[in-house]
Design goal:
It is built from 3 helices and no strands. The protein is mostly helical.
Length: about 100
């Protein structure tokens, strides 16, 4: 006989809440991008600092966009998984009780 799967929805919802909190924090930090690093480089004097600043300037928008996309995709997939688990659980419970 198959064992029952026990899902603690409160724990899952708490985890989703923590993920959403982390995303808000990430988005806040991502808005700054490499701006702080670039400004620190302004104070340095070296042969490669100018080139490094150029690289960071070029990467800045691309990195922000890509990171935001990755995090958003992760959250969407996590939320979909939670929704699917809940729907399956509800369907199994209805079938168990003989409901349609």
């Amino acid at each position: 006989m198959a064992e029952r799967i026990k899902v603690d929805y409160d724990e899952v919802n708490d985890a989703v809440g923590r993920i959403n909190k982390a995303i808000k924090s990430y988005n806040s930090l991502a808005e700054q991008g490499f701006d702080d690093a670039i400004s620190v480089l302004d104070e340095m004097n070296s042969d490669y600092v100018g080139k490094l600043q150029q690289v960071l300037d070029c990467l800045n928008p691309k990195v922000k966009e890509k990171m935001n996309s990755i995090v958003t995709t992760y959250v969407n997939k996590t939320s979909n998984a939670v929704d699917t688990m809940k729907k399956v659980d509800e369907a199994v419970a209805r079938n168990y009780r003989g409901e349609q």
